[in-house]
C-alpha cells in the first residue's frame, strides 16, 4: 500500500511538472521548420509575442529602447526586413498612422493584425487651462498596453493570429496565452492592492500616457503636454496653480520625452520629477515598478 501511495505521489508530481512546463517551455522546432517572422511596433508587444510564441516566433521591433513611437521613422533596414515577415502586430501608436501603408506595401502578403480589436478605446487627455478634459476631435488614446486588463485582449489577438498562421501548433499558443493571462490577472490584483489606500488619486504627468492605467485603478492624470505640444506660458501658469491647489509634489515623465516643462513646474511647486518608462520590454516587472512609484507618491 505504501509503495502504491509512493508511486501515485510520484505520478502526481510528474504530471504537475509536465503541466507547468507546457505553460512556459518552448516547443522545439524540427530541423525542417522555420520560425514565424513577426514584426511589432513597440517593445511591450515583443514581450507578449514572446510569451505566446516562444521559440516558434522570430520577433523584430520597430521602436527600440529610448525611441518615441510618436516621432519614430522606420529605418531602411527594417523596411527591407519586412519583406520576410509573415505577421505585423499593430497597436495604434502615432507613427503607424503615417507608415502603416508603406509597411503593408513593403510586403503585400504579410498580414496586418490590429491588436486593438475588441479593446474599448478611450479619448486622449489634454489640459486646457484649469480643466483636464478629453482630447477632443476623435483622438484615440493608443496606450492600451498600460492596462493589464486590456493586454489580455491584445494577447488573445496575438495568439489567434499565430494559431491561424501555424495551425499545427495552435494548442501550444493557446496554452501559452492562458499562462500569460493568468500572470496578467495576478499583476492586476497586485496593482489593485498597491493602489487601494491612497491619500490622493490625482497625479501630474508630462505626456498623457496613463489614461487606461488611471481608468483601471480609479486615478486621474493631469497632463502638461497639449496634443503633443509644449504648453504656452499661460497654460504653464495654470498648471502650476492647479498643482499647488492639489498639493502635487511629483511630476511623472518618461525618458522618451523632454522633461524641461515638467522641471519648470516642479521647481515652481517645490516638487521633483520622477522618471517612469511605459515602453520597457520586461512588461510584468516594469508595471509592478510603475505601480510602486505611483503608490509611493500618492500615499
Looking at this protein, list some descriptive labels:
single chain; alpha/beta; Rossmann fold; 4-stranded parallel beta sheet; 10 helices
Describe, in plain words, how this protein is organized in 3D.
- The chain has helices at residues 2-24, 43-53, 76-81, 94-106, 148-165, 170-194, 211-217, 233-245, 260-269, 283-298, and strands spanning 36-40, 57-61, 87-90, 111-114, 125-128, 131-134, 202-205, 220-223, 250-253, 272-275.
- By secondary structure, the protein is an alpha/beta fold.
- It has a domain at 196-298: Rossmann fold (3-Layer(aba) Sandwich), CATH 3.40.50.
- A four-stranded parallel β-sheet has the order 2-1-3-4, covered by helices on one side. Strands 8-7-9-10 form a four-stranded parallel β-sheet, sandwiched between helices.
- Helix 4 links the parallel strand 3 and strand 4.
- Helix 2 (43-53) packs across helix 5 (148-165).
- The longest helix is centred in the middle third of the chain and has 25 residues, at 170-194.
- It is globular and about 65 Å long.
**Number of helical elements:** 10
Radius of gyration from the CA trace? 22 Å
CATH class division of the domain at 196-298: Alpha Beta
Largest sheet: 4 strands, parallel
Return the CATH architecture of the domain at 196-298.
3-Layer(aba) Sandwich
Alpha carbon gap, first and last residue: 58 Å
What is the fourth-level CATH superfamily of the domain at 196-298?
Nitrogenase molybdenum iron protein domain
Given helix and strand content, the structural type is: alpha/beta
Shape: globular
Number of strands: 10
Looking at the structure, the CATH topology of the domain at 196-298 is Rossmann fold
Strand content: 5-15%
